[in-house]
Amino acid sequence: MTAPSLRAFSSVGKPAAAFVALLLLSACGAGERIANIGKAPDLSPIENPVTRPDYQPVRLPMPAPIVNETKPNSLWQAGSRAFFRDQRASRVGDILTVVIEIDDEATIRNSTARTRDNSENAGLPNFLGLESKLGSLLPGEVDPGNLVGLNSGSTSEGSGSIRRNEEIELKLASVITDVLPNGNLVIYGRQEVRVNFEVRELAIAGIVRPEDITSANTISYEKIAEARISYGGRGQITDVQQPRYGQQLYDIIFPF
């Protein structure tokens, strides 16, 4: 290759290498992280949870609808929970406070032990006089009474223990996103708090009964069906606590 062609190859190779490096950085999300160096994590904008890409409408078995009979001579309406107007959340868009008080503790211990010994012996002392012909079929001296001998043994022992202790006390305002045909309410709430360069995120979703909502317009988390509670964060501290991309990839593909 001549000198001009080498110069042309090098001039083309440098942009190509830069383009490949840019693709690699974009693939692992490093480009966005580099652009945010020295900046605090951005807070997510307030938006309609129904329009979020990860929002899933709730579809559950419903009882047959009940037709309410109107009684003109009565001030009481069927389905009302109080004589006066109820101030608790009941319609789409109403706000409901969820009280989260988790104090769980679990201890699990398991142990297993297994031992197995196997022994197999086989011989052919007499078989229609053909046992004398084994010498011509098998090399060396053959003992017809001890043709096959097998033995095996295995020992396996295992033990494991799990100890978990969780304690979370939080309150989160959620929004009613849907009212199911049987009157149950679908709620969704999300909260973000930024302290310096770390963002704490709290999200909750589930289904509640209007009867379980207290007069203070609150509900405890254990009365939420299909509850999804997420508590975490993102930022510089969270990033340092995570293994690097290469290490995570190595842990996935390494077979041993």
Mind explaining what this structure looks like?
- This protein has 256 residues and is of the alpha+beta class.
- It has 3 domains: 33 residues; 141 residues, no CATH class; 53 residues, no CATH class.
- It is built from 5 helices and 6 strands, in the order ααβαβββββαα.
- A 6-stranded mixed beta sheet has the order 5-1-2-3-4-6.
- Strand 2 and strand 3 form a beta hairpin.
- The chain is elongated and about 110 Å long.
- It starts with a helix and ends with a helix.
SSE pattern, N- to C-terminal: HHEHEEEEEHH
* Rg on CA atoms, Å: 35 Å
Mean pLDDT across every amino acid position:
77
C-alpha end-to-end distance:
46 Å
Spatial sequence of strands, sheet with the most strands: 5-1-2-3-4-6
Strand content: 35-45%
Helix content: 10-25%
Which geometry do the CA atoms define?
A: elongated
Q: How many alpha or pi helices?
A: 5
> From the helix content, strand content and strand pairing, which structural class follows?
alpha+beta
Brief summary:
With 256 residues, the protein is an alpha+beta fold. The protein has helices spanning 3-27, 30-35, 134-137, 236-241, 245-253, and strands at residues 95-122, 148-179, 185-195, 198-208, 218-220, 225-235.
List keywords for this structure.
256 residues, alpha+beta, six-stranded mixed beta sheet, 5 helices, 20% helix, elongated
